[in-house]
Amino acid sequence: MDPEESSGEVEKVLETLQTLPKTIPSHTWLVDHLTNLGFTRSLSEWIGTNLKRSGEHFTWAFNLDGIIQMFDSYRKMDYWPLLEHPPKRMEIVIVRVENSDRWDPHIIQKLESLKNRTSDESEGKLSVVVLPNSGHWVHVDNPKGLLEIVTPKMVSLS
After folding, report:
1. Which of 34-38, 68-72, 98-102 shows the lowest mean pLDDT across its residues?
2. How far is CA 40 from CA 52, 68, 81, 107, 144, in A?
3. What is the predicted pLDDT for the residue at 115?
4. Degrees to nearest 5, angle at CA 128 with 127 and 134
5. Contacts of residue 6, Cβ cutoff 8 Å, sequence gap at least 6
6. How far apart are CA 118 and CA 48, in angstroms?
7. DSSP 154
């Protein structure tokens, strides 16, 4: 991922979480605190779903340092060579949601050109499927549609 193409939202969330105390007084405190820092209420509520009770306080249900390392790794990786030349007998399926502001038009165009190209049998296959009536939360927005996409692929692996 090109850092220049990022909205910075994820980075801002991770930086903010690093500044919080190790124990959080309550879910309400966290949501109010994040909202006061300028995050939306819905994002703050979602972040709060990642708290777990630890005695009278709350802690994160995840390893924040691990998440930061994974995100940094994600940002440094360039998967275009893999998408342009999938290994023989590999099928890569990209699920693109219909309602998202995270897909730049030039990326969509590049993916469409890759999926429509003809390749010989020395390479694998790339397909792009658009999940209708869905935004970022595919498993919530259109779980049936998502299952219709992934189930045949999973069955074919067994």
Report:
1. 98-102
2. 21, 21, 36, 27, 28
3. 84
4. 150
5. 75
6. 46
7. H
Q: Which residue has the tokens 């306080």?
A: 57
As to burial, measured by CB atoms within 10 angstroms (0-12 exposed, 13-18 middle, 19+ buried), residue 42 is exposed
CA dihedral (86, 87, 91, 95) positive or negative? negative
- Under the banding of pLDDT at 50, 70 and 90, the label for residue 1 is very low
> DSSP states of 1-25 as a string?
--GGG--SHHHHHHHHHHHS-SSBS
Residues 29-37, mean pLDDT to the nearest whole number: 97
Tokens 């006061």 found at: 36
The model's pTM is 0.69
pLDDT of 3 reads 45
* CA–CA distance, 30 with 34 (Å, rounded to integer): 6
